[in-house]
Design brief:
This protein is an alpha+beta fold. 16% of the residues lie in helices and 33% in strands. The chain folds into 2 domains: 54 residues, no CATH class; 87 residues, Sandwich (Immunoglobulin-like). The strands form 2 sheets. It has a 4-stranded antiparallel β-sheet, with no helix packed on it. It has a 3-stranded antiparallel β-sheet with strand order 3-4-5, with no helix packed on it. It is elongated. Belongs to the small heat shock protein (HSP20) family.
Length: 160
């Protein structure tokens, strides 16, 4: 038997494969309703929808050089007034609220609500020299290191 005959779209190249819409199949409808059910349930706890993929929101990038620590957070759809940044006890906290309106929407995957993301930073950071810049939905927090920070590293000999 020719294996190409088992694949329906290869039997006759002139006849297109039948395409079914997702709405036509009851399994897709069930999948969509289960997603909506879980989203509604976790939304009642003020957690981001789709909890497995979204608990770390906003997404951040942390980099460190000899002179500074830089934290970049992606905050699409937010404005500067919706974001609060604080630094206490070597923990940088970004919090805020994403407001939106889903009035009249039959289905929505857009997330809205409060959020908070905390990041432990190096104790070398100088809490008195912190700047934050918000442009095009990207928050950049730059924290200068203390001038004596490199001197605070103490090498410990390892005996073998």
């Amino acid at each position: 038997m020719d294996l190409r005959n088992l694949i329906r779209w290869n039997r006759d190249r002139n006849v297109p494969a039948v395409h079914h819409r997702e709405d036509d199949h009851p399994v897709f409808a069930l999948h969509r309703e289960m997603n909506r059910l879980f989203d509604d349930f976790f939304r009642s706890f003020d957690l981001p929808a789709r909890f497995g993929a979204s608990l770390g929101w906003p997404n951040i990038e942390l980099s460190e050089s000899d002179n500074e620590i830089k934290v970049i957070a992606e905050l699409p759809g937010l404005e500067q007034k919706d974001v609060d940044v604080s630094l206490a006890n070597d923990v940088l906290t970004i919090r805020g609220e994403k407001k939106g309106s889903s009035a009249g929407a039959v289905y929505s995957e857009r997330w809205q609500g409060t959020f908070q993301r905390s990041v432990q930073i190096s104790p070398d950071a100088d809490p008195d020299r912190v700047t934050a810049d918000f442009r095009n939905g990207v928050l950049t927090v730059t924290i200068a290191k203390r001038p004596d920070a490199p001197n605070r590293v103490r090498r410990i000999p390892v005996n073998g």
